[in-house]
Structures are given as structure tokens and as C-alpha cells.
Predict the structure.
Amino acid sequence: MSRPLIAILRGLRPEEAVAVGEALVAAGIAVIEVPLNSPDPFASIRAMAHAIGDRATVGAGTVLCPEEVERLKEAGGRIVVSPNADEAVIRAAAAHGLESWPGVMTPTEAFAALRWGATGLKLFPGSLIGPEGLRAMRAVLPSGTRVYAVGGAGPENFAAWLAAGADGFGIGSALYRPGMTAEQVGERARALVAAYDRAREDSP
């Protein structure tokens, strides 16, 4: 069973992409983001989409312009994650039938992103907003809006974020750092999944 966790693989190299992707899927993480400031990111995305695309949603992070959305589509990616809420990027993702998860920090950004067609919202950086900030935003966001906390969310505070209304999380350096082996990533992924499951069981 996969969890609402996005693996952020910043710095991933194409030659290790498939092994790392397989390790993540085996551990229960089936949404994978390769930030575009990684080495040859579209090659990594293409390799993973071909190898595990039937079991995982593979896409790109740090997507900043519509041209990158088009390249992602061509590489077989299915999810667009951005650090900001850019109308052109969100609309391009929707036009190509891809999921769009723009970064937002305020209700104004959140409502704009949803109006432009965002699939869900990436609350970023989560460490600046915190669970209480999300709780306040939840009071006004449309029912059913999916919000993932990214940057400042991890095993130590999964429970607080879930109680505040987070639907899921994006996990970066706590899961993957350049140079780690697929086995190491898998071990971290299993620990994160276990921590998420415990927090989910304990949440009201």
C-alpha cells in the first residue's frame, strides 16, 4: 500500500534512478519527484517512468516554466511540482493532463492556484508556516482541497501536521541525499513509512 508521501530526489543521477525508484516503491512510497536542478533530470524521469510507471507516479520538481512541463510530458512524467504558484505552469500541466502541485504560503496564493487548475497545494516551506498556520488556512480552503506539507515536515511532527489537516508530505533530504545507495534509500523509506503509519493511527 502506498502512502501520501512524495519522495524528493534532489541530485539523483540517471544511472541510479531505477534502483532508487524500485526501492521506494517496495517501501510503500509511490510518488517520486526529481527536481529539475538535478543532473540530467529528464533522463532520470524517463528511466523511472519506463521501469516503474505502472506502479508509481513519477514527475518533476522545481518546475518553473511551461516549456519544462512539455519536456516532462515527453519524458513520461505525470506530476508537476513547483516551489511557487505560477499561472502558466499550472495551466500547462492541466492542458497536458498532468497533476500540478504548486508551492503556496498564503490563502491568496492557495486560492489563485486552485482557480488556475492546481491538483493540490504544496505548503512550502512548511517550517515557516507550521501546523497552526495550516490549521488556520484549512478554515477557509474549499472542502476536499489536498494540501501536502513540504520543508519542515518529518517523523518528529507528522502527527501535528496531520492533526492540523495535512493530507500528505513531501520528503527530501531525510529520505535521499546524493551518493546514497538504493539500499540506504530503501531503509530510510521504510522508516519514514513506519513513522507515517504510527502518526496516522494516532491522529484523531
User: Anything to note?
Assistant: The mean pLDDT is 97. The first strand starts at residue 5 and ends at 8. DSSP finds eight helices and nine strands in the chain.
